[in-house]
Write a structure and sequence with these properties.
The complex is a heterodimer of chains A (109) and B (111). By secondary structure, chain A is an all-beta fold. Chain A has no helices and eleven strands. In chain A, a hairpin with a 2-residue loop joins strand 6 and strand 7. Chain A is globular and about 40 Å long. With 111 residues, chain B is an all-beta fold. Chain B contains no helices and eleven strands. In chain B, the strands form two sheets. In chain B, strands 2, 4, 5, 6, 9, 10 and 11 form a seven-stranded mixed β-sheet that branches. Chain B has a four-stranded antiparallel β-sheet with strand order 1-3-8-7, with no helix packed on it. In chain B, strand 5 and strand 6 form a beta hairpin. The radius of gyration of chain B is 13 Å and the shape is globular. The termini of chain B are far apart. The chains are: A mainly beta (109), B mainly beta (111). At the A-B interface, strand 5 of A face strand 5 of B.
Amino acid sequence: RKEVEQDPGPFNVPEGATVAFNCTYSNSASQSFFWYRQDCRKEPKLLMSVYSSGNEDGRFTAQLNRASQYISLLIRDSKLSDSATYLCVVTNSGYALNFGKGTSLLVTP
Amino acid sequence: DVKVTQSSRYLVKRTGEKVFLECVQDMDHENMFWYRQDPGLGLRLIYFSYDVKMKEKGDIPEGYSVSREKKERFSLILESASTNQTSMYLCASSFLRYEQYFGPGTRLTVT
C-alpha cells in the first residue's frame, strides 16, 4: 500500500465553485503535512503547511484528521489560475518527503 | 528568494553513456534531494544528502549515484544510462524538515 494516496482526478469545476481534495496516509507516526502545487511542466511549490488545528490562507483551507489519517484541501471561489496538480506531502521522522501522485484540477470559464 | 538551479533543462544521451546532472542552491541549506517524476508514478526519491559528503538512498537508488563535495552543490550520476531512465529529474533543497524548494527540472531522454 502506498504511503500517501490521492484521487488523481481530474476534477473539472467551473469558475467560482468550491472544490475539495482528500489525501490519506498510512503511517500513523507521520509528523508533518503539506500541500504542494505543480503547474504543467513546472516544479512543485509549497502551497501551504497543514497544522493539527487546521489553517486557512485566503481561499484555501487545509485540515488534518490524525484519527482517520487524512488531510484535506478546500478551495473556495475557484479561479482559472487555480488549474494545476495538487500534491499531498507527508513526512515521517526523517528529512525526506513522501509525495502523493497528485490530484489534477481544471477550472473552466 | 531561494534559488535552486539545475545544469540543463533538456538533455539527450545515448544508452551506456555516463550522465551528470548538477544542482546548485544558494540558501545554505543542509539538505538536498534528487527526485524523478514520471506520468502515473508521481515524484520518487532517488537519493538525498543531509550534509556535505553524506548521502542516503531513497526509494529508487538503483542505477544512480550521487556526490556532494560542497554544501551548495549536489550531483546525480547515471553510471551507464538506460532507456528506462528517461524521465524528468528534479532537485530540491531544504533547511532541516521545512519546506523543500525545487529546481526547474531536467528532462532527460536516453535513446
